[in-house]
Structures are given as C-alpha cells and as structure tokens.
C-alpha cells in the first residue's frame, strides 16, 4: 500500500515513481514534536527508505534554526525564525509548542491512503492534524492541515495557516519556475536562479489572480524539458493565497503554501475547526516535460469533473457582439457557427437586466427587458434547432450599484462600515460567504438552467476584492476571504449535483481564476482575454506547465485582433487554438466565404485529432512559443499529432528539423500527409522537416502533422 510504516514514527509515502519519507521526532529537551520530511525523491524500497529516516544535522548556532525548513509545518513558536506556516494567538500570547498525540493510516478506497499525524499544544486545548494523501496512480501527493480549538478552551485567532511545507533536498544551486503576468498577458513562464532569502508569490485579491498562479517548481539548475529532477508544489485554491519559497544561507530550500494572505485573521471559537485546502507536491525525475505530464494526468484522474468527455467545439459571442446581444443577431451567428461544425453556442454578457454596457445590472438576472421582452427561450430553442448545445454567460459574484439587487440589498456587497465602496469595472463583489447570498444565487442559477435547458455556464468574475468586510460578523470579518471562495465552490457543486449534464467554464476577466481548486467544479477555464494567436502561444505554454489541454479553452477570433490589432493568417489562429479546446469567437458574418470554408475544414480536422489533443500525453517539443520556431506534440494510442509554428518566417536561424518524442522506437509511423513510413527511432533521433520551418517565407506559418502507428 502507498503508506508504508518504517517504524512507529516514520512513514514512507510511496507513489509509482517517488518516495516521500516523513517522521515525528520528539525533542528530548523540550518535549516538542516537529514532524519532518527526511526524503523526497526517486522511489526507494522500504529497506532503502529506512536508511533515510535521519537527515544529516545542519549546522546550528544559537542564532539560527536551519532545520525548520525540513518541518512539515514550521509553527510560530520556539526557536524558529523563518516564515511561519501556522501562527496562532491564545489571548495575548502568540507561540505554539506542539506535542505528538498520535498518528494513523486510513484506507480511503480506490488506491488512496491517508496518513494523519495529530499534534496538540503543550498547554492550550488546540489540536493540529497534518494529513497526507497518496494514491497508487499518481506521483502527486496531497497534503493539508486541520486546526481545532478544543471545546474546553478559549477562542483563538489564526493569522496564518498553511496547508503544508515541502522541503526540497540539498543541491549546490537551485532554480525556480513559475508563471506570472497581468490581464491579457497571463501565465508567462519565468525560470531563474533562486536567490537566498524568502521569495513570496501571493494573491491578495480574493481570487487566484492574473499576477501569479499558485504553483512553484524547483530544480537544481540543470533540468531541461526532458531530463533532470524537478520538485513542484501547487495549491488547490481559488481565493487569496501565498506560496513562500525559502532558500537558506546554509543551503536547503522549502516551499510552504496556503490560503489567505498576510494579515488575514480567522477566529476559532471553542469546538470549531479550520481546514486548509490541499497543497500538492510532485517529484519528477524526467524534467519539466514529465513533470507537466504528471500534473496533467493528476488533473484528469483526480481533479476535473468530466475528464473522460471530449470538450465540444464552442462558439462564444463576446468579441463579435460585446453587450449588444439580440436574438436575431445571435441566431445569425449561430446559423453560421452550426454550418462550420460548432457544437455548443455560448451567449456572453449583455442578455440581462438593462445591461447595455458594464455600468449596470449585475444582480438583475432576468432577460433584458427591451431586447428580450419574450424571454430567452426562443433564442435557445433556435440554437438547439440548429443542432448545437446551449450555453450562457453569468457573473454570479458581480453586483452593479446600478441594479435592483443593490437597491434591495446593499448589505450583500463586500463592504466595511465607514469605508468607501470602491468599484472596479463599475461593480462591487457580492459576499458569497453569506448564506442568504448563496441561497439567492443557487435559486436563480438553478431556475435559469432548468427553464432554458442550459448545457453550459460560463462563470465569470470580473474584479478583485476591495473593502472586503462583513460588518455582521463584527470581530471575525476576515472570514470572508476564505468563506467567499468556499461559497463559490459550494454553489457550483450544488448546481452540478442538481444538473448532472451541466458543464461550467471558469473565467475571471480572462485568466484570473485558474487553479486546481476551481477545476474540481469546472470543465474548462478561460486562460486570457487576449485571443491574439501570437500572444496566446506564450499563455498556452505557461498554462501547459501544470494544467492539461482538455481544460484550456481557446478561441479563433478575428484578424486584426480586437485587443492587439495584429493581423494573422486564419490557419495560424486555428493551429494555436486547436492545441487546446477549440472554440470560435470571431464575428462570423464578416468572414469571407473562403475563410468560412477553411474554418469548416479546420474544425473537421480538429474533431479527428481531438481525443489525442484533449486526452493524450503532451510534449513541448522545441523553441519558445510565440518567439521562435516551436512545436507541441500529443500522443494517444496509435495517433500522434504535432502542431508546428513559425512566427518569424524570414528568420534563417533556428532548427529546420523537428525531433519527435515519446514514440515507440521500433514501431513504424505513417505520415498522414503523404503516406510515408518512418521508424519511431528515426522520428525521435533525426526528426521531420516541417514545411512551416523552412527559413524563407511569410510570418506566422504553421501546420498540423498527424502520424499513425502502423
Ligand atoms: C471578461 C471575460 O474574460 C470575457 O470573455 C467576457 O466574458 C467579458 N468578461 C464579459 O463582460
């Protein structure tokens, strides 16, 4: 089984390709128990794991505690001066002295086991449970922390609760990787040396954020796409968060992660508990590519609600119509979309209240009075009559000051007494921590889905929190930072339960809410409002580091692009979007008949390779996407699909041959384009010569290469 007891206080957590050894040692002087990680790396036999239950002691002087980074949860207390993963205030004292209570392994079924290590403060009735879940089909280990205020004690204030701290084994040098960005420029991959000190990536926005995504990967400086050891940590949470990477001057690195941000305070009454969301750890010995493939498999196996389904080709009306949604125009778009082979038609913002622009109506979720006097049923019947499924944009957490809802319930907005209510994108945020708000949201969403027979909701969230208070909660208003996110999960979960056929897309002004937390409730996510295929390539490259192509919504839009003004060939736009879940977002009546014909052909081609793109193993083959010749490959069963890109046509430098990977060296593969047959060994060692990579030609040339194992 995956959790192997090594002795009565050490355990080897064993995944298919890795071992993670943890133990609880009691300090003979203080009696304190500090559960520590003693190993995380390639898989070991239990006998070998027994030999790594003890780490070499790091140099300790009275001025430093270098071993605290090995702890599963370095608390604020005793001789620790690093970034605390748990900070609690008892009355006026702010220091924990955890002692060991017990540990137990639980069979969770389906090949999963959970180890719980229970600690308690030496004096106060306060319990800490460190949980580790391991499964037999993934190298991703899930950890989280539960804290409980004993019913016999007084209330305690929690000012930091991480889900867990991960220690990265010693190396001479370290690099860190992550994705960062901004609106319309999300998920830009950065990789660089890890300086000594504390490196904090965080969102204080109440949503995951465009600025940084909650994951970090560490390597010893030499990992490449296909080689080398990589340790990854990701947080499954969609509100504010913090990941702190500490590189100690004496050597050694740890990454701690949890929800909330600095200063957020949670009061636990006697008898109450607080459970942190999962923080995930992955060791991979096969470079960044293998690490990404393991994350993708984990997402498909244990996160996404419908991983076995093929995500449909959708049309979204936003870039074509903005707020000017009318039945006639949507049906005109729908007719052309259906002719192209689109399977799901999504009506975006502008269908409700008096929503003619973004100044008004969020909260008034009834059909727009002037534009849909008869309701929306006719439009959706029309869409279904064209043979497509029907989807609708909503922003349940949004609240316009200019709305019936705000006039009736100003107290439902996040707000603080004696403070302004700042609007962003001319709107406030509804407090989903409130029971009445969630009940209201579930009520109208449920009715909408039922009455219109909706198959799909695009759940948007267009602004971060400000003045995030909840005056009714008096001394415990900060709860809203956590309860809001749980509330959103709760409403999405109940909606899905009531409508098992319903599919949901997560969007937050583009890519502001992409993480393994929201992916438990949503089938796909929208990575960016920037649909320029050139820019999109870097966004998709960043997305693919952790998240699978089956969850990555990607539209083909107009040229020149609405956001960037860049003109680009239709094929390139398609080939970039076909590397994820293909969608169309252009103003179709403006497309020429030649473009429509080509689009129909490309959609048909996508459907032929869709299972491989969405469910296959993904290999990032070469080059920095968007900046030089690059390619991405997918393999499923007998089919191999490669998208090849060349953004700078006239660049003479750069490879002409493209080496494939992940093939069976002894098998023959047939190129769909000309029927020629090649050994896997040849394709991997020598490669193919893509036409799009020939050095002289137009910018933005691309092609899709399909091979079949014969
Ligand atoms: C932001 C989203 O990212 C867009 O796709 C669109 O849905 C708009 N909101 C609508 O207001």
> Ions, cofactors, ligands: which are bound?
(2R,3S,4R,5S)-2-(hydroxymethyl)piperidine-3,4,5-triol
Fraction of residues in β-strands: 25-35%
**Span between N and C termini?**
38 Å
Rg from Cα? 26 Å
> In CATH terms, what is the architecture of the largest domain?
Distorted Sandwich
Poorly predicted ranges: none
Structural class: alpha+beta
Please give the CATH class of the largest domain: Mainly Beta
Count of the domains: 3
CATH topology of the largest domain: Beta-galactosidase, Chain A, domain 5
User: Any idea what the shape is?
Assistant: globular
User: How many distinct helices?
Assistant: 12
Total number of β-strand segments?
Answer: 36
Can you describe what's shown?
The chain is an alpha+beta fold and 710 residues long. It has three domains: 3-302, Beta-galactosidase, Chain A, domain 5, CATH 2.70.98.60; 315-502, TIM Barrel; 630-709, Golgi alpha-mannosidase II (Immunoglobulin-like, Sandwich). The protein is built from twelve helices and 36 strands. Strands 6, 7, 8, 9, 11, 12, 14, 15, 19 and 20 form a ten-stranded antiparallel beta sheet that branches. A hairpin with a 4-residue loop joins strand 7 and strand 8. The protein is globular. The two termini are 38 Å apart. The model has no long low-confidence stretch (mean pLDDT 96). Bound molecules: (2R,3S,4R,5S)-2-(hydroxymethyl)piperidine-3,4,5-triol (DGJ). The site of (2R,3S,4R,5S)-2-(hydroxymethyl)piperidine-3,4,5-triol has 11 residues, from loops. (2R,3S,4R,5S)-2-(hydroxymethyl)piperidine-3,4,5-triol binds next to loops.
């Amino acid at each position: 089984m995956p959790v192997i007891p090594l002795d009565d206080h050490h355990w080897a957590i064993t995944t298919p390709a890795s071992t993670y050894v943890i133990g609880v040692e009691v300090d003979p002087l203080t009696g304190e128990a500090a559960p520590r990680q003693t190993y995380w790396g390639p898989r070991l036999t239990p006998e070998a794991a027994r030999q790594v239950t003890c780490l070499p002691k790091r140099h300790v002087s009275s001025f430093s505690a270098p071993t605290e980074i090995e702890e599963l949860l370095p608390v604020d207390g005793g001789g620790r001066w690093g970034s605390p993963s748990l900070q609690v205030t008892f009355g006026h004292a702010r220091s924990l002295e955890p002692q060991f209570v017990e540990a137990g392994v639980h069979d969770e079924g389906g090949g999963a086991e959970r180890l719980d290590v229970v600690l308690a403060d030496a004096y106060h009735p306060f319990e800490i449970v460190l949980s580790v879940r391991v499964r037999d089909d993934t190298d991703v280990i899930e950890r989280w922390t539960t804290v409980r205020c004993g019913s016999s004690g007084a209330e305690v204030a929690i000012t930091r609760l991480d889900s867990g701290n991960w220690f990265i084994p010693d190396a001479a040098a370290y690099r860190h990787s992550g994705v960062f960005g901004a609106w319309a420029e999300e998920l830009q991959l950065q990789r660089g040396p890890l300086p000594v000190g504390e490196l904090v990536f965080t969102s204080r926005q109440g949503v995951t954020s465009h600025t940084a995504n909650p994951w970090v990967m560490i390597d010893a400086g030499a990992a490449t796409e296909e080689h080398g050891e990589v340790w990854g940590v990701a947080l499954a949470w969609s509100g504010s968060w913090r990941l702190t990477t500490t590189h100690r001057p004496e050597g050694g690195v740890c990454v701690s992660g949890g929800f909330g941000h600095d200063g957020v305070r949670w009061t636990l009454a006697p008898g109450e508990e607080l459970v942190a969301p999962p923080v995930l750890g992955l060791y991979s010995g096969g470079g960044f590519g293998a690490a990404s493939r393991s994350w993708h498999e984990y997402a498909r196996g244990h996160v996404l609600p419908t991983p076995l389904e093929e995500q449909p080709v959708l049309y979204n009306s936003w870039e074509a119509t903005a707020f000017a949604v009318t039945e006639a125009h949507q049906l005109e778009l729908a007719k052309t979309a259906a002719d192209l082979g689109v399977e799901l038609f999504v009506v975006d913002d502008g269908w409700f209240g008096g929503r003619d622009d973004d100044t008004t109506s969020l909260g008034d979720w009834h059909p727009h009075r002037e534009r849909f006097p008869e309701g929306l049923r006719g439009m959706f019947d029309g869409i279904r009559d064209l043979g497509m499924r029907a989807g609708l944009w909503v922003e349940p957490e949004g609240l316009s000051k200019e709305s019936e809802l705000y006039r009736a319930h100003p107290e439902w907005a996040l707000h603080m007494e004696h403070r302004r209510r700042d609007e962003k994108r001319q709107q406030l945020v509804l407090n989903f921590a409130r029971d009445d708000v969630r009940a209201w949201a579930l009520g109208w969403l449920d009715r909408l889905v039922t009455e219109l027979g909706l198959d799909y909701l695009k759940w948007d969230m267009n602004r971060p929190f400000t003045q995030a208070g909840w005056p009714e909660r008096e001394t415990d208003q900060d709860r809203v930072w956590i309860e809001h996110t749980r509330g959103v999960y709760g409403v999405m979960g109940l909606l899905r339960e009531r409508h098992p056929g319903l599919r949901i897309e997560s969007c937050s002004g583009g890519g502001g809410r992409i993480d393994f937390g929201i992916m438990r409730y949503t089938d796909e996510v929208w990575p960016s409002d920037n649909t320029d295929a050139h820019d999109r390539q870097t966004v998709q490259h960043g997305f693919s580091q952790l998240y699978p192509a089956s969850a990555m919504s990607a539209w083909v839009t107009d040229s020149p692009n609405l956001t960037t003004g860049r003109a680009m060939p239709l094929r390139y736009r398609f080939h970039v979007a076909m590397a994820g879940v293909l969608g169309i977002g252009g103003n179709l009546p403006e497309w020429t008949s030649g473009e429509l014909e080509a689009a129909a052909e490309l959609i048909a081609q996508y459907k032929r390779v869709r299972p491989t793109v969405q469910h296959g193993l993904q290999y990032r083959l070469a080059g920095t996407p968007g900046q030089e010749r690059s390619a991405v490959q997918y393999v499923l069963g007998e089919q191999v699909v490669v998208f090849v890109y060349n953004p700078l046509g006239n660049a003479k430098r750069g490879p002409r041959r493209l080496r494939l990977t992940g093939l069976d060296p002894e098998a023959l593969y047939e190129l769909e384009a000309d029927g020629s047959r090649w050994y896997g060994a040849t394709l991997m060692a020598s490669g193919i010569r893509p036409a799009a990579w020939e050095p002289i030609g137009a910018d933005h040339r691309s092609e899709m290469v399909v091979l079949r194992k014969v």
